[in-house]
Specification:
It is a single chain. This protein is α+β, with helices and mostly antiparallel strands and about 450 residues long. The strands form two sheets. Strands 14-15-16-17-18-8-9-10-11-12-13-19 form a twelve-stranded mixed β-sheet, with no helix packed on it. Strands 1, 2, 3, 4, 5, 6 and 7 form a seven-stranded mixed β-sheet that branches. It has two domains: about 240 residues, ABC-type transport auxiliary lipoprotein component (Rossmann fold, 3-Layer(aba) Sandwich), CATH 3.40.50.10610; about 180 residues, outer membrane lipoprotein receptor (LolB), chain A (Clam), CATH 2.50.20. The radius of gyration is 25 Å and the shape is globular.
């Protein structure tokens, strides 16, 4: 292989595996009734041979706790307290004390335990795989009870083209599939067009050594693990609300401008193609948490006219036990492809937020969809083709499942059944009326006022 081509491959492999360094995202929602306000990330128990892995994974989980609206104690500060007051420097020493004692010493209402089970990269030339796997639990230090648990493994692979590489990949996947306690998710599978095993091994080994040298070893896999494992993490109370509670009381005449925050996003319904016709319908979405054996059902009113879409939903049905503020308990999403804008309406507060569309001219993001037809069925009296699908969202989330496309409705996705981690989302579109909805449905009511902050909705609901 020419030297220049080898360097080019290394750069492509490394940048493709690492991606961009993401900035922390502002919390989309918070639950002011969550008693776990401030959280300390404890040193991870390390069951691997990598000495740097636990700290990298800890940093990724810190980012996710912040994005879920928790106040996170600085790890340098918490490590010093653990070392000086309790003599704890390693995750394996945490069994010597209790969560309640940790909470008292650290001054937090929650502690996050973790065990890093895998953090390695295997390079053979034929089949090369990166693996990160861990378990976590968030414990309420006031009660000693688990507030949340999560466990997951994430891996990416590169294998040689041809039968040898394909067989090696299949054998490895089969072995991982037998591990039911902590399941694996494959986020990347790259086929390398290289027939020389020794040269392929050298290329992948070079990429591995380079990524370690520049401090980006297994960064993307760690990021994906943290993001995916915390998808069902309960919302924290919100950094802004804690700051407001601890701030001195302001005079009645003073008006504090609430910080600008992002609007809560509508739920994910997997993959839906609404077809080309104008219609009104009811969307029924059922989310099953297989780990907890809990099911949540909600109905959403849909209306579509050209490149305009409206979704009316009762968000309190999605809160899953959390108390939903009255101002936010009902929400309407207006997507205006003709204006390249979208709006979030809060009917109870008669307020709205305006957003620039991330994908102008489209009703929703454009995920990569791979589908294979597996049969035909009749769904709600509509003859439909059934497809096995793999959906890769623009943020890298991979979901698998089935969709049913109604042949008499321009292949509208009339049913979708998608799984990721321990969650299954089943969505059906029912009571379809093929007629243009009233134009007024897609306009912001004249008596609504614009707001830029969810905090404004919480503190001034009317």
């Amino acid at each position: 292989m020419p030297k220049g081509l080898t360097v080019f491959f290394l750069l492509c492999f490394i940048t493709g595996s690492v991606g961009c360094v993401a900035q922390r995202q502002m919390p989309r929602y918070f639950d002011v009734n969550n008693p776990v306000r401030k959280v300390a990330l404890l040193p991870l128990k390390n069951d691997t041979s990598d000495v740097d892995g636990p700290e990298l994974m800890r940093k990724k989980m810190s980012d996710m706790l912040y994005e879920h609206a928790y106040v996170v104690m600085d790890t340098k500060e918490s490590d010093q307290v653990l070392r000086d007051r309790m003599g704890i420097t390693l995750g394996g020493q945490l069994d010597m004390t209790t969560a309640q004692k940790l909470g008292e010493e650290l001054g937090v209402q929650g502690v996050l335990y973790g065990t890093l089970m895998d953090f390695d990269e295997t390079t053979t030339g034929i089949y090369n795989v990166k693996k990160v796997r861990a378990t976590f639990k968030l414990v309420n230090t006031m009660t000693g009870q688990d507030a949340w648990t999560g466990k997951l493994g994430v891996k990416s692979e590169v294998h040689m083209s041809g039968r040898t590489g394909a067989v090696a990949s299949a054998v490895a996947r089969g072995s991982d599939a037998r591990d039911k306690e902590v399941p694996w998710v494959l986020i990347d599978s790259i086929v390398m067009n290289e027939n020389n095993i020794g040269r392929a091994a050298a290329i992948n080994l070079g990429a591995k050594l380079f990524s370690k040298a520049v401090g980006i070893h297994l960064d993307r896999e760690s990021t994906e693990l943290a993001r995916r494992v915390t998808q069902n993490l309960p919302w924290g109370p919100g950094p802004e609300s804690i700051a407001i509670q601890s701030a001195p009381a302001a005079s009645p005449a003073a008006k504090v401008r609430a910080p600008k925050t992002a609007a809560m996003e509508p739920p994910s319904f997997g993959y839906l193609d609404y077809g080309k016709r104008d219609f009104s319908a009811i969307m029924v979405s059922t989310t099953l948490d297989k780990g907890r054996n809990e099911s949540h059902r909600m109905e959403i009113q849909l209306a579509k006219a050209g490149d305009k879409m409206r979704m009316d939903m009762d968000m309190s049905a999605m809160a899953q036990g959390a108390t939903m503020p009255s101002a936010m308990s009902k929400m309407t999403i207006l997507q205006r492809g003709d204006q390249k804008l979208s709006y979030t309406l809060y009917p109870n507060a008669k307020k709205f937020m305006k957003h620039a569309e991330q994908t102008p001219g489209k009703l929703e993001g454009a995920p990569k969809v791979e589908k294979v037809k597996v049969g035909s069925e009749v769904i709600d009296r509509h003859p439909s083709d059934k497809y096995r699908v793999t959906i890769t969202s623009t943020d890298g989330l991979v979901q698998e499942g089935y969709i049913w496309s109604a042949r008499d409705l321009d292949n509208m996705t009339i049913r979708s059944e998608i799984e990721h981690n321990d969650v299954r989302i089943t969505t059906e579109i029912r009571s379809i009326v093929l007629a243009p909805p009233p134009a007024t449905l897609f306009e912001v009511p004249t008596d609504y006022t614009e707001t830029e902050s969810i905090m404004d909705l919480m503190m001034n609901p009317q």
